[in-house]
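input
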Amino acid sequence: MKHLYLAVLLLLGSLCFFSACSDDEGSVGEELLGTSKVNVSYVEEDNITITTNEDRLSDLSSISTILVGTLNDEVFGKTRSGAAFQVRLPGSVRLDRATIDSVKLFLAYSDYYGRDSLINQTARVYLLKDDIQYAKIYNASSEIASIIGEDVGSVSFNKKMASDTIYLKSEIDNTQDSLIDSVKQIDTVLQHLTVKLDKDKVGQFILDAPEEVFESSANFIEYFKGFYVNSDDISQSLGGIYSFNVYYSYLQLYYKNHATSSSTGNDTVYEAKFALPITDNSARFNMPEFNTPDDVLTSSEYIYLQGIHGTKAKIQMPELRTWKDSTQVSINKAQLNFNIAIDSLERTKYPLPYRLELLAVDKNGDKIPLRYNSSFGNIPTGLLDLSTNTYTFEIPELLQMIIDNEFDFDYFELSTGTIEQRLSGSNERTSYPGDAKNSVSRAILHNSGEKKPTLKVTYTHY
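output
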């Protein structure tokens, strides 16, 4: 009898334990307003509304990659990209009655995105006739036509990029040792798109500058404004967009110096060259042109994301606002899942971004990034998982911030990467991980049916 009594007590205890860890059903708000519960789990999918929006206002300046080319995407339509940038002095330059021989712009190949790599595209280089500013925000709505000057060179090219482990030194071999050293750290072949420029309008113009122009980079960029590079439009092929690494791209001048010997009075002519690099202090920005099709922006079946094309997703969860009514909730785990809607064949044509970026947006439009420095050990979230064909975000901290009313939550924003904000009252930027302004990679995700986005939450209610 004693053993039977003990067994009954154990059975009752087990039932109580499992009832406290049940997978309850219901809306987000209802789940949090119940009695004390531990490790309650549920899946939210019916109260999530997602729309694709065109964004022309995100900052596209301080780029690490120059994007040039035209891509006729069957889904997203045409994207044509160009870029403006300054070149700066490498250090002291000796010019003794110098005359120009030739001048070339070297753009370092980085990547290619598109369907038609064999079609020739034409890169065209223009002088800038007005200043561009490092501290200024440039976006897809910026009007720059008025600052684009003369056409000073062009080249027709197609995809020629390859990578291996051969060690080569860059052509940048003048007085800027720090730039040479940085190039030596790369163990792949540096390949450049070379554009021969008008030697008088560019090269001799620089060599003829007053002496004080060469005293500082500030003086130089006031005298020589920089370049704008774009591609000619194409309509008969799918095309693609080329990426060029900013930090290994440069302008090179080849010239002759004429020196007079102080002892003999004879003239000595010797050949010389120097490179003007694009540095981290150079003003630089990509400038895309695009017109998103209506069916992309109005679709309720799919979510459409593309970096420089400017399509992002707005994720609304009205029920989350009711969580603020419950102050005794601790989020243990929260996953926001998205299923890829592109088959493997399509992925070979248009590679998916290796990760997506999720931000919370408050009522003032300020963006709050995910926190990485908690129980997840600084592991980035939103990574592509091809074994499950999903992007998954771990967002317990962000959800806890919403519940604790740390900011006035409005909606989530999903994109292919970087979004930069200026801190109030200064030119300082804060950037979030990603690559949107440096990439044209795109993703199409399910937004309906069995594979629609889900929010899976486990929490404790005290």
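quick obs: The two ends are 38 Å apart (CA to CA).
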